[in-house]
Write a structure and sequence with these properties.
- Two copies of one chain form a homodimer.
- The first copy, chain A, folds into two domains: about 170 residues, Rossmann fold; about 190 residues, Dehydroquinate synthase-like, alpha domain (Up-down Bundle), CATH 1.20.1090.
- Helices cover about 45% and strands about 20% of the residues of chain A.
- Chain A is built from 14 helices and 13 strands.
- In chain A, a hairpin with a 2-residue loop joins strand 12 and strand 13.
- In chain A, helix 6 packs parallel to helix 7.
- The longest helix of chain A has 21 residues.
- Chain A starts with a strand and ends with a helix.
- The mean pLDDT of chain A is about 95.
- Chains A and B meet through helix 4, helix 5, strand 7, strand 8 and strand 10 of A and helix 4, helix 5, strand 7, strand 8 and strand 10 of B.
Chain lengths: ~375, ~375
């Protein structure tokens, strides 16, 4: 078991990464009790994950007063009203401020459970047990919680840090291939942001990752979490440099919203978004087209899309442009994008050429 | 103009109290700009207050990109979905993280606007312009925001501090008598908590307050805000002593929920709750019945009820008991109540006699 620490003063917490961690904690139940204040637990999961891991997780908390809430599976259910089943369960059981929510599932379950924890009785504790690669390397770490609005992704939410994160790599064995690739998109993001040698490691080890080699996955997860933990510790509420983690996301969120939540997986949209960021960077001469090709090659090796799927709803330049202008990275009317200077070197800027952005959007739009 | 400071490190903010403050800021617009980050404002008000003060408030922010949202008036609308008109307005206008929300109205408007500010894009700024006595002496100060759940009051929310509070005592002139009295209930609460001489001042000056004497009101507001600011500064997120501010509220919230939100004003329920706290304190011998009578006398002088209105829905012991057990002041199954040791001396305790509590509930129940 690897233990990483997210260093946020009194909100600091550990990330545990390892194979068969659920079993390990089950055999050492006293370890989990350090992260629980009261006697009450609500496990939140979804229809896909619950049949696989809910029984084991209920056992883990067998000494507590424990309820569970099963949400429908999918980004389309990550809505403002979608968290009401969690709140209603808490209210109906009169669970108090010492209750701990447990998010057992992927990014959607984690974001919704965290948001419910943030606003129930003005804030209660929660624990993340991410069961997808995407959640293990990204969404379960850093305290961003929230839900989508019909007009924009993750627009309603809170910063609310978990008490701990338990990333059991064994749960990735039940993940379908598309979900696995979606998680790898976020792993590639960390390489592109600040680590050229990790980028090369990924080029050499993508086969192993795709084939779920346990050691390769553990290394990629550890690297990603370490990177994210350091960035979050330096800028918890994204006043500045944390925004670097949004490489591919401003394009990606626009694609997700335009296609309709759930039609394109988050990581797939981020992959396309990173290709678009590379395209715009080439147009400015910040990287050459060889570098862009290397990025596209790595993304393709991960079985991820490099253009907006045409079989879904068609997406126009105008729609992408409007959705990007509504992104959280817009401040005082200025759109900020994360663009690429070199492999392993990204930067946040509002100083890019609007005509070149228009050209990128035209290249990638499908209408 | 009196300026008080709520001392919370980087979340510190001023409370401005005075007559005709809206006009004052209108004539000195640069003063308000210190509390606004971006260029965008959304004023949130309700159908009763907007016709009176919205025009003036729009003028105050005339140099900003300014929109307004008018909510229906009443506690019954303080629901989870009730804040969606605010969120939708923000989304439709693509307002960014630098937007400032302005709550123009009473406690309901303030709580809802504050909650919307807490969760829009994971948190934006807001300013309180409370127009009721209750909001000026209590709810606009301290950062408690939120909405009701059908099963309990204020169960969904956040701690989110405003940038400043502008309490214009002139707005109290348009308040109806029942609303004025409701606010006085919270003023009486501060006296009962920790200040016997303020209790005596209230006995001597209740006529002046009821008749809206400007000096008396200003004194009572200043005293109340000072008291609340000190308590909040010492315990922002109610880990301990801040709970003293809930004198009368655990009983009161149960009454409000049992009668149906809006059938009994918040301050009226708190008044009855304080009489019930006094009753339970007498049963323990912590105060004598002369002291209880003095409390009842003061509450009656404020034209506030001292028992649950019988003309509304009838309320049973069982219902009150169940609702109190669901209160936010319950921890690990233990109900905590604020009870009274002497005039101007209250304390938080879970060590009271359950049979005596039952007797108090029986005395006050109407079914």
């Amino acid at each position: 078991m690897i233990t990483l620490n997210v260093d946020l003063d009194e909100r600091s917490y550990p990330i545990f990464i390892g194979d068969n961690l659920l079993n390990y904690f089950l055999n050492n139940k006293n370890l989990i009790s350090d992260y629980i204040k009261g006697k009450q637990i609500v496990i939140v999961s979804n229809e896909t994950i619950a049949p696989l891991y809910l029984k084991k997780t209920l056992e883990l908390f067998s000494s507590y007063q424990c309820k569970s809430v099963i949400l429908p599976d999918g980004e389309i259910y990550k809505t403002y009203d979608g968290i009401l089943p969690i709140i209603n369960c808490l209210m109906e059981n009169q669970f108090d401020r010492h209750v701990t929510l447990v998010a057992l599932g992927g990014g959607v379950v984690g974001d919704m459970t965290g948001f419910a924890a943030a606003i129930y009785r003005r804030g209660v504790n929660f624990i993340q047990i991410p069961t997808t690669l995407l959640a293990q390397v990204d969404s379960s770490v850093g305290g961003k919680t929230g839900v989508n609005h019909p007009l924009g992704k993750n627009m309603i939410g809170s910063f609310h840090q978990p008490q701990c994160v338990i990333a059991d790599t064994n749960t990735l064995k039940t993940l379908d291939d598309r979900q696995l690739s979606s998680g790898i998109a976020e792993v590639i993001k960390y390489a592109l942001i600040n680590n050229a040698s990790f980028f090369n490691w990924l080029l050499n080890n993508m086969d192993a990752l795709i084939n779920r080699d346990a050691d390769a996955l553990a290394y990629a997860i550890k690297f990603s979490c370490q990177d994210k933990a350091a960035i979050v510790a330096a800028d918890e509420k994204e006043q500045g440099q944390r925004a670097i983690l949004n490489l591919g996301h401003t394009f990606g969120h626009a694609i997700e919203t335009a296609l309709g939540y759930g039609n394109c997986l988050h990581g797939e949209a981020v992959a396309i978004g990173m290709v678009m960021a590379a395209d715009l960077s080439v147009r400015h001469g910040w990287i050459d087209s060889d570098t862009q090709q290397k990025i596209i090659e790595l993304i393709k090796l991960a079985s991820l899309p490099v253009q907006i799927p045409a079989e879904e709803k068609q997406v126009s330049v105008q729609e992408l442009s409007r959705l990007m202008q509504g992104d959280k990275k817009v401040l005082d009317g200025q759109l900020h994008l994360v663009l690429i200077n070199a492999l392993g070197n990204s930067f946040i800027t509002s100083e890019f050429d609007r005509t070149k952005l228009e050209q990128t959007l035209e290249t990638f739009s499908t209408k």
